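Bench notes, afternoon.
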Amino acid sequence: MATINNFEDLKVWCDSRNISKRVYSITRKSNLARDFALKDQIRRSCISIMSNIAEGFERGGNKEFIQFLFIAKGSAGEARSQLYMALDLGYISKRSFEEMASELSAVSKQISGLIQYLKSSTMKGAKR
């Protein structure tokens, strides 16, 4: 694995950032824009993915990073669940749902891969 100096260098963080931007776009334009509670919850869960990846990375130790990655993975699941509700209520199209759910699943898999890598790595970070 290449040396990563900043969380911005992580592909999974970049991908989660793109998901957040996309969710903001979708929730601004669709019927979901009028359902303030669901719109805000979907936005918050997507932002939580990228935020927890960044916070965990900045903690400087693998154990804490892994802990925050698990939280980010949970937020990806939460966002997928909320998208099901948006689909069921007719707020978003099946196509938008499938694209976003697929992207969130891919990020979740990337997070799982990073967790496994960190668990098996001999480098334990600054805090050990």
